[in-house]
Amino acid sequence: DERSYIMIKPDGVQRGLIGEVIKRFEQKGFKLVGLRMLNVERSLAEKHYADLSSRPFFGSLVDYIVSGPVVAMVWEGRNVVVTGRKIIGATNPAASEPGTIRGDYAIEVGRNVIHGSDSVENAQKEIALW
Ligand code: GTP
Ligand code: MG
């Protein structure tokens, strides 16, 4: 079955949103197949977001991801990659719809609570990496 890498970022953990995130994915019908809470090494954060390394916000993005523990999860189910991105909402919370996680819980693009893989191929890479 299809799998996605979903990660609650440090702001989501600090704000007590772990249960809320898990609830939304469970209620949709997806299956949690792996979960780990960890402090992220800088090198791991840099690898995870390697595609963005030339962007001006890359340094602050890495600072953000290493600023506290994250909850790394693998979720499984039909179309979980695309549907997971819908549950999460648009990257910039200014554009994410109410009813999505970012739409309901975030206001800043640099503190947007959660990560979700953007393709099946990247999901496989991210699951292997994490
Ligand atoms: P992820 O699920 O975290 O990968 O987000 P995404 O796929 O919706 O967006 P993308 O992969 O393009 O960017 C990764 C992360 O970088 C975003 O979630 C933001 O936290 C951050 N980011 C993206 N664009 C900007 C930006 O313009 N400014 C700042 N400060 N951060 C950004
Ligand atoms: Mg992304």
Automatic annotation (TrEMBL):
GO molecular function (one): ATP binding
Name the record gives this protein: Nucleoside diphosphate kinase
SUPFAM superfamilies: Nucleoside diphosphate kinase, NDK
Broad EC category: transferase
EC number: 2.7.4.6
Cofactor: Mg(2+)
Keyword Kinase included in the entry's annotation: yes
